[in-house]
Every structure is written in C-alpha cells, then in structure tokens.
UniProtKB/TrEMBL annotation:
PANTHER family documented for this protein: ACYL-COA DEHYDROGENASE (PTHR43292), ACYL-COA DEHYDROGENASE FADE34 (PTHR43292:SF4)
Cofactor: FAD
UniProt GO molecular function: acyl-CoA dehydrogenase activity; flavin adenine dinucleotide binding
Protein name: Acyl-CoA dehydrogenase domain protein
C-alpha cells in the first residue's frame, strides 16, 4: 500500500450511496408539510406511522439478518439512511433506539427465542425500546446503579428507579442495566441487562418536561415487578461489558453532528435571499461547513472501524465531543448573526426553529455521556491521565 493509499479517506461504498436518492424522494413525500421547527426535533421526534412506513420499506434493522426480518446489508447502508433522516428532520424517534442498539444487542447476546420474538417486530416498526441506564445519582458514574433484579423461583423481581429514559412513555420495552448480585460498591461486578416489558404490573412511567416544553424523557419506577427467566439478556454479571460495547456505536454516528442541521438549512435559505446575504452570514456558513466536513469524514472512518469489528471507543468519544460542540455553536452563532446586524424580514419559521434548537442544545453534550466524561476518556486514550 502506498502512502497516498493509506491517507485516502474512507468512503461510503457506491452501492450504499445509490440508496440516497430513493430515501430522499420517499421522505419528501412522507413528511411533506411538517414545519421546520417540528422537523428540528429529528431523532427526538416521534411518529409511529412513519416508523411503520419505514419498516415496510425494509429500512429499519437494515443490517440485521433476513432470517429475523432484517435487510442483511452493511452498516454503511444504515449510515446513508440515518444521514437522510437527519438531514430532513424525519421524526424517527419511535424506532431509533430499537434500530440503533436494542435489536443489534439482542442479536449479539440474546437467545434464539428472544431473537425470534423481538427482532422481526423491531424491523416492521412495531416494537419500540428505550435505554434504562441512568438513575438518580448514577449518570456519569453508571457502575453505581442500584436498581436490582433479584433472582427468584420464577425469574427476577425488579425494584428501583431509572431516570432521563428517552421515550419510555411511548415504548413497549426497556433494556435496563441492573444489579443481579452484590452491592453498588462492587461497581462493574454483578451488573446484568434485562428486558423489561413496560406494561407489567409495578412499572410506573412519569414523563419529565424539558426546557423547550417537550416531554421526551421520563422517570421509570419499578415496584416488585416480576420478570420471567427469559428477561435476562446475555450472561448474568456481564452487563457492564455489554453496555460498554453499546456506547461506541451510540457515540460516533451522524446524530452527533446533525442535531442542528434543520436549523442550519432553514437559515441558509434566508442567507440566500437579498436581505439575508450579508458578509458575516456568508463567513459563518463557510465556518460551519468547513468544520462539518472533516467531522463527517471522521464519523464515516469510525463506521469503517466498527464494520471491521474494531472497538474505536476513544475515536467515538472524540467525534461526539467535537460534533456536539459544533451542534451547540450553530444556534448560538446564528442568533448572534441575526440579532447583531438587526436582520430584516427574518421568516417566523426560522425564528421558531432557532428558539427550539437553542432550548434543546444544552442537552446535546449531556445525552450519551457528558462532555467532561468524554474529555476524560480522550485524555486517558492519549495516555495523558
Ligand atoms: C436529552 C437526554 C436524553 C437522555 N436519554 C437517556 C436515556 O434514554 N437513557 C438513559 O439511561 N439516560 C439518558 N440520559 C441521561 C444521560 O446519559 C445523563 O444525563 C448523563 O450521563 C449525565 O448523568 P447525570 O445527569 O446523572 O449527571 P452527573 O453524572 O451527576 O454529572 C453532573 C455534572 O458533573 C460532571 N461530572 C460527573 N462526573 C465527572 C467526572 N468524573 N469528571 C468530570 N466531570 C464529571 C458531568 O460532566 C456533569 O457536568 C439522557 C440525558 C439527556 C440530556
């Protein structure tokens, strides 16, 4: 291999790129009429109807084996789909977690019965999952979780509380990180993952309202919830290893770059008008695009590493940290630009989108691991601590 070859950027294979046009056309019709300030919610937006339509197209679980209803295609196919969903702000939140991590997790660690029961329904856009990791007092310090699944004659009895659980009020299932043995002081030891049917007696789900007025995440309480023996996913006591592997996939995808992209596009439309085409706006547009392009290239390169079975945990942390910094810069810089020059005839829809993204943006560097935690991981990966 020549030096030039080794420097070549990872590219999405042409057979996957070929899917873009069809997805774009489909989405243009499927979400026609949805205003930008709603589309700005994107993977936080929720539409079971859209999920079912995408399932019918074969675009959920696209990397999963056809034997379980999946598409049998590569992770790059999924990358193209996700980029297109995010670029137009399709409300894909209902199946998001199930597609990104729950079904792949079940495929990797689940029993044959679990695979057959859950995965085909995920692929049809009918079974939705949420992630039960965080608890009050156990967010960054995840290994200290206290929710406990105590083994008994008929499976496990679940007691405890999860918090910030995205879409718990809309999902049928949660994959929860729980303690099955030992105490919180045992840290990583004694943790397991269980699938919780959220309709079981003893489960209470309470939505939490965020700064923007949306209620997309919840508190979830477990009071003597009886789980069957088949609730355990993977090996008992292996929960920590399973969760860590999940997080590398969660941190490097396009969703860590494109959370403000609907706003950016909406603003660019204004910048193309005579009133909006100021010198400072054009400079800002260039600044955003020159940061976005290399970050996207890094995200695609990490995808390639994941496809090759590597575990690019530090690289994924770096993409998330840089990506969310850019995502948060976009609404702040657009607001500065619009208001500093007392811009004229700014469309109301642009202002409503700006308002929503400004209110949502603090959460970009909290969800999926906070900025401080990621910086600590990067420093450790570089051998600096
Ligand atoms: C929009 C959104 C959606 C979410 N969805 C989910 C979900 O679906 N499922 C789920 O399980 N969780 C979810 N979360 C929770 C999220 O993962 C946690 O909020 C996050 O891990 C931080 O945990 P915490 O809130 O307990 O804060 P803490 O861990 O208490 O942190 C508070 C502050 O202290 C800093 N800090 C903590 N420890 C250290 C350290 N060692 N070094 C330096 N600084 C430190 C943090 O960076 C942060 O600024 C979501 C959060 C948000 C905002």
């Amino acid at each position: 291999m020549s030096t030039l070859d080794s420097l070549a950027l990872t590219r999405i294979p042409p057979e996957d790129e070929a899917l873009r046009a069809e997805v774009r056309t489909f989405l243009a019709e499927a979400i026609a009429g949805l205003p930008a300030h709603i589309r700005a919610r994107s993977w936080g937006g929720y539409s079971t109807e859209l999920s079912r339509k995408l399932g019918a197209k074969g675009w959920i679980g696209v990397t999963l084996p056809p034997a379980y209803g999946g598409g049998g295609r590569s992770a790059f196919t999924r990358y193209v789909l996700v980029e297109e969903y995010l670029a137009c702000g399709a409300p894909v939140g209902s199946h998001w977690i199930a597609d990104r991590q729950s079904a792949p997790l079940i495929l990797k660690y689940g029993t044959e019965a679990q695979k057959q029961f859950y995965i085909p329904r995920v692929c049809r856009g009918e079974a939705f999952f949420c992630i039960g990791m965080s608890e009050p007092g156990s967010g960054s310090d995840l290994a200290s979780v206290r929710t406990r699944a105590t083994p008994n004659d008929t499976g496990f009895v679940l007691n405890g509380q999860k918090i910030w659980t995205t879409n718990a009020h809309h999902c049928q299932y949660m994959i929860a990180l729980v303690r099955t043995s030992g105490t919180a002081e045992d840290r990583h030891k004694g943790l397991s993952q269980v699938i919780v049917d959220l309709s079981l007696p003893g489960v209470t789900v309470r939505p939490i309202e965020d700064l923007s007025g949306d209620s997309h995440f919840c508190e979830v309480f477990f009071d003597n919830v009886q789980l069957g023996p088949d609730a355990l996913i993977g090996a008992e006591g292996q929960g920590w290893e399973q969760v860590t592997a999940e997080l590398a996939f969660e941190r490097s995808g396009p969703e860590r770059l494109f959370s403000s992209i609907v706003l950016f596009d909406q603003w660019l439309q204004y910048v193309r008008t005579p009133q909006g085409r100021t010198e400072s706006a054009q400079r800002l547009a260039g600044k955003v695009l020159t940061q976005l392009a290399p970050l996207r290239a890094m995200s695609v390169a990490i995808q390639d590493k994941l496809v090759r079975g590597q575990s690019p945990i530090v690289e994924a942390a770096l993409v998330k940290e840089l990506g969310t910094t850019l995502e948060q810069m976009i609404p702040a810089a657009i607001a500065d630009d619009l208001f500093a020059c007392e811009a004229e005839d700014v469309p109301v829809e642009l202002l409503m989108t700006l308002k929503y993204v400004t209110e949502a943006s603090p959460s970009f560097s909290l969800r999926g691991g906070t900025r401080d935690i990621l910086r600590g991981m990067i420093a450790r990966g570089l051998g600096l601590r």
